[in-house]
Amino acid sequence: MLSGADDGPETDTDSYMREILNIFRPTRGRSPARVEGGGVEAMDENPGHRSCLEVPDLEPTIFTRILRREVPAAIVHEDELTFAFMDAGQLNPGHVLVATRQQAETLLDVDEDTAAALFRTVHRVARAVQAAFQPEGLTILQANRVAGWQTVPHLHVHVLPRHPDDGVGLVWPRKNPSLEELRRIAARIRL
Predict the structure, then answer these.
(1) pLDDT tens-digit series, residues 88-125
(2) CB-based contacts of 6: which residues, under 8 Å, 6+ apart?
(3) Contact partners, residue 29, CB within 8 Å, separation at least 6
(4) What does the pLDDT read at residue 172?
(5) Which residue(s) pair with 77 in the sheet?
(6) Rounded distance, CA 170 to CA 151, Å?
(7) Given pLDDT bands bounded at 50, 70 and 90, which one contains residue 170?
(8) Does residue 77 have an active-site annotation?
(9) Considering Cα of 27, then 25, then 153, then 61, what sign does the dihedral take?
(10) Whose CB has fewer CB within 10 Å in the chain, the N or C terminal residue?
(11) Rounded-to-integer distance, Cα 37 and Cα 32, Å
(12) 78 close to 97: Cβ distance less than 8 angstroms
């Protein structure tokens, strides 16, 4: 068993999780955004479309390896720019990850069209998860870099069905600054 305890024979889930844990290798501090040209080759006729199937300068992430079918996964959806698959950890049944086909570390490392495509797929997956599992809520979570809770250096979004007392937590310590301070902070943000 993954816990290390001898609770009987290894199940298919245990074997799958062991394979996932053994395969994951971090990019050793290299960020896809820092590789010249994104480290990927253009796919098809669309020069803005990047494929993670050819990433010569980067060590492939576990998500890239899933997309290449080097690692087994339960795929939910694929299109030209994104793909969705079941999270192996399943915090709740129906927990899906939606990722970019382009191997980019964070939301800041992709163009606006790719980001829009990612969230279009998130919207479609969220509606499908809601219809299939009828959760009382949904958490849509996108994290960037380790300090932002990102654990796999490949842009992705969690679509997580939620239920009361499901044991999933989120710490959100409010600071409650004054309106004057909020305006000072807002003045620093320029689109």
Answers:
(1) 999 999 999 999 999 999 999 999 999 999 999 999 99
(2) none
(3) none
(4) 86
(5) 84
(6) 16
(7) confident
(8) no
(9) positive
(10) C
(11) 9
(12) no
pLDDT tens readout for residues 28-62: 333 333 222 333 222 333 334 444 444 456 799 99
In the chain the beta strands, taken as DSSP E runs, fall at 42-43, 46-50, 75-78, 82-86, 96-100, 137-141, 156-162
DSSP 4-72: S---SSPPHHHHHHHHHHHH----TT--GGGSGGGG--EETTEEEEE-TT--TTSPPPHHHHHHTTSS-
pLDDT, position 39: 30
Amino acid at position 1, single letter = M
Phi–psi pair at 159, nearest 5 degrees: -110, 105
Q: Pick the catalytic residue from 95, 154, 156, 158.
A: 156
At 109, list the tokens: 């490392």
Three-state DSSP class for residue 6: coil
* Residue-level pLDDT at 140: 98
Residue 138 structure tokens: 């949904």
